[in-house]
Each structure stands twice: as structure tokens, then as C-alpha cells.
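User: Second chain of the day. Same drill as before.
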Amino acid sequence: MLWSKSLETGIAKIDEQHKELFKRVDALMDAGNKDRFKETLDFLGDYIVTHFSDEQKMQAEAKYPKAAIHKRYHDNYVIEFRKLREQFLKEGHTLAMSQAVNKNVIGWLKDHILIHDKEFATFYKNK
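Assistant: Same format as last time:
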């Protein structure tokens, strides 16, 4: 999953965290063995919670009117990610699991950044 300028929000802290998420997702996709895949999946699970918390703090401080909606997107994604991790623990590292991670993690991140995070960034920078 390659980072591109089109994904930048213009908020340094958020962009750096997004870049780290993309880097870790790439590592996850390259993880050839079960232990490495699990380790990277665990890291991502922890990191998204930290990242989402940081975004939500910024939104609260900026009095972002859509903060509650944005938080729901985050909360729902954490639930989805945990389900994916549970599936991995049951089924192991398979081609189907790699495809599910690819669709779930990469697809969600790109959509979320391009729509919701950029919308917040515009609000934040104009405040």
C-alpha cells in the first residue's frame, strides 16, 4: 500500500501517523509467516486505537461539529478490525486472510482518509 500526496491532510501529526499505518500495512502484507503476521496485526490493532484517540482529541479541541460522527466511524472500525483479528486467530495466515486484511484495512484507510479525515483537516486548518 503506497502512500501518496493525495492522502495528505496537511496536519503533520495526522499525516505522520497515517504514513506509519501505511508502512505497517505494507509490512503486514509482506509478513510471510504466522508469527510475523500476528505481530504486525497486533501492532496495527494498538496503533489504530492510539491514532484514533489523537484525532478525536484534536477534533474536540477544535470543536469539530462532526466529531461524534467521526468517532462512530472509528469505533465501528475498531470492532471490524477486532473481528478480523479473531478470524486470523481461528483460521491462521491464509491467502483468504491476506485478502480480507487487504480489503478491510487498506480499503477502509484510504476511504476514511480521503473523505472524513480530509474533511476534518479542512475544518481544522480554517479554524
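The first helix runs from residue 12 to 30.

User: Great, on to the next one.
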